[in-house]
TrEMBL record:
Molecular functions per Gene Ontology: oxidoreductase activity
Any one GO cellular component localisation term in the record: plasma membrane
TM helices/strands, residue ranges: 6-22, 29-50, 56-78, 90-112, 124-144, 151-170, 176-195
Any matching Pfam family: Oxidored_q2
Gene3D superfamilies the record matches: 1.10.287.3510
Gene of this entry: hyfE
Name of the molecule in the record: Hydrogenase 4 membrane subunit
Amino acid sequence: MINFIDVITVLMMGTSLMVFGLRKYKLSIYAYALQTLLLVIVFLLLHFKYGAHELLLWAFTAFLMKVVFVPLFLLKLVNKLSIINEDEPVGGFFISPVIALSFSLAVSMMFYKVFVHFSIFKDALPLFAASFIFMIGIFGFILRNSFLKQILAYCLFENGIHLSLALMAYNSHELVEIGILTDAIFAVVIMSILAKRFYASYDSLDTSKAVNLRG
């Protein structure tokens, strides 16, 4: 019998690579919105499968904040700056996704067994996917120079945390989830404002061009 939670978390891994690797900003944002919608569906499936009532509120809150608000906010930023494509990243558009994929798979294979040991739900593949998405976010910070891509990397990083939290500690108080979501929204808004000011100063979102900020 097909385990739909496994299938959806694998799709989330695929969308992580799309967010990381797609050159067009709008496509990356759409991929992020799709991944977060898949995350909401995972919350709902866990709710129905295990009777985890807390995840119903998590799903509703995540849909409003992360599927609707954050993508619309980032699309508005892209339209305002009139930017279309990302500048050449560290290692190029082909090599950097290969590096991120390889190391994220390797690190996730090392750690997911530890997470299974401490998790409430003993679903190995979703825990592996949570680690993978988290690591792709980390490599997004390391390998992408674009300010906007680094915001999206933070969003991936945060989706990985949400998925692992739902699997490992879904019965945490609702305020924990709302607090994490609120932090994420404020972080995205603040980083977007900084990105806009950066673009106004350097006529680019490529952070490597800010050589005058090096100490």
